[in-house]
Design the sequence.
């Protein structure tokens, strides 16, 4: 059994893609980022007998060997995750094309991670409203200035593609676009 009880905190956010007012998504509260050296420091806080450089060397070599084995066609179980390599993209004419094809590694949870997930409690902090951010965008070519409100952080304006249309049913709009009718 996994020794530590984990608590995962999350905010509720209304689902925008359905009309059901009771449907929510969650946004996990990210407490920070932890890298290999940070995790080693956490281990050192638990046990002062650990040699930091030796542990870093072992973990680095272990990760390198696990990656080499996974990318050599082995299914690798690290105890935390299972790794399996695959080739993505169509091989036109049966030939590898780096512009279309790529190597990927699929990760799935292993027993230790599965046990840790089962020992995790989710704490809902409440409902978080969507943050509306305002932008003042000016088009350099036409010098037209517009004000936008958006739920996203990045706004890109492409003047020739701006148009305002009503809200027809999706199928009708798609059929009109597809058939040019």
Sequence:
């Amino acid at each position: 059994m996994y020794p530590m009880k984990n608590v995962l905190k999350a905010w509720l956010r209304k689902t925008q893609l359905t009309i059901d007012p009771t449907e929510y998504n969650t946004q996990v509260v990210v407490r920070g980022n932890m890298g290999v050296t940070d995790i080693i420091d956490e281990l050192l806080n638990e046990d002062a007998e650990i040699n930091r450089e030796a542990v870093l060397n072992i973990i680095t070599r272990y990760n390198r060997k696990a990656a080499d084995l996974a990318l050599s066609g082995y299914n690798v179980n690290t105890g935390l995750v299972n790794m399996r390599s695959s080739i993505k993209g169509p091989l036109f004419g049966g030939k590898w094309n780096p512009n279309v094809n790529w190597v990927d590694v699929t990760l799935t949870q292993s027993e230790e991670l599965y046990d840790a997930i089962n020992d995790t409690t989710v704490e809902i902090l409440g409902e978080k409203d969507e943050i509306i951010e305002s932008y003042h965008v000016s088009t350099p070519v036409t010098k037209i200035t517009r004000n936008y409100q958006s739920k996203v952080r990045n706004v890109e304006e492409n003047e020739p593609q701006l148009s305002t249309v009503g809200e027809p049913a999706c199928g009708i709009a798609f059929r009109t676009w597809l058939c040019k009718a």
